[in-house]
What we know:
69% helix, two-stranded antiparallel ribbon
Amino acid sequence: MTRSPHPPATKRHGDRKAAVGDVGRPPVAWAVPGILFFAVFAIVPLAIAVYLSFCRWDGLGSPTLTGLDNWTRLFNDSEFGQAAWLSLLLTTISWAFQTPVALLLGVWAAGRQRSRAFLSAVFFVPLLLSTTAIAMLFHALLDPNFGVIRTIGPWLGIDPDVMGSSTGALLVVAFVGGWQFMPFHTLIYQGGARQIPEVLHQAAAIDGAGMVRQFFHITLPQLRHTITTSSVLMVVGSLTYFDTVLIMTKGGPGTDTTILPYLMYRTGFQTYDLGYAAAIATALVVVATGISLAMVRFSGFGTMRSTREGM
Length: 311
C-alpha cells in the first residue's frame, strides 16, 4: 500500500490556524518600548505628584511630609469645588458641541463626493496649529475695543464684550477648544464610517430606506464604539484645558473660568504652594480616570471584540 503524499486535511487546517494565530498576536516584547516610555513619562511623574500631595513644598527646599493636611484642605476648599464644577460644565458643553458636528462631518467625509478631499483638507487645518496661536488669534478677534467682534457682534446679536460675562467667557473657551480639536474627532469618525460594510447601506436602499433612516438605523449603531472612543478622548482633553484659559481669560472674569488645571497652575506657580497643587492634580487625575472608566463600562466598549482578529 502506498502512502498518500498529502497529510490529512485536519492536520493542515490545525497548522494553518496555529500559523494564523502566531501572526495575529505579536510577542509581548514588542510592547516593552511603549511600556517603558509610558512608565517614565506618565507613571513616575504621577507617583511623584501623589507623594507631593502629602507634603508641604514651595519648590525650593525639600518637601516636608504633612500627612492629610492638603487633602483635608482640598475637601473644605470652596474654590476647589467651584473649579471642579466649572471643569465638569466645560467638559459637558464641549462634548455636546463637538460630538454631533464631528460625527456628521466624519460620516460625510467618508463618502465619495467630488469636493470631499479638498474640503476635508481645509477643515483639518486648525488641528495643525498650536493651541497658543489659536488662543491668541481668538483673543485678538474677540477684543471688545479693537477686534472684529466690535463690528460684526451687533449684526449677529452678540455683545462685543462677550468675554466680560461669565457665561460668554465659558462658552468662548468651549468654542475655541472645539474649533481646534473637532477635526481630530472628525478623523476618528471618518475612519469608523469607512469600516461599515457598504452592503448594509445597499440592502437598506433596496428596502426603501432613505439617507436619514440609514444614518439612524445603520451608521449610528455601527459607530457606537467609535463614539465611546471619541468621547473618552474628548472628556479627558476637556478636563485638562489650560493654555486656552490662561491666554484668553486668565480664569476670569473673576473666577468664572477658573477650572481645575488653571487653579492648579495658579496655586503651584503663583503662590508656590506646590504640595496643595499636587493634591489638585491628583484629584483631577482621579476624576478624569473615573469618568473614562465609567464611560467604557456602561457603553459596553470593554466587551468589544475585533472581528478581524487573527487576519
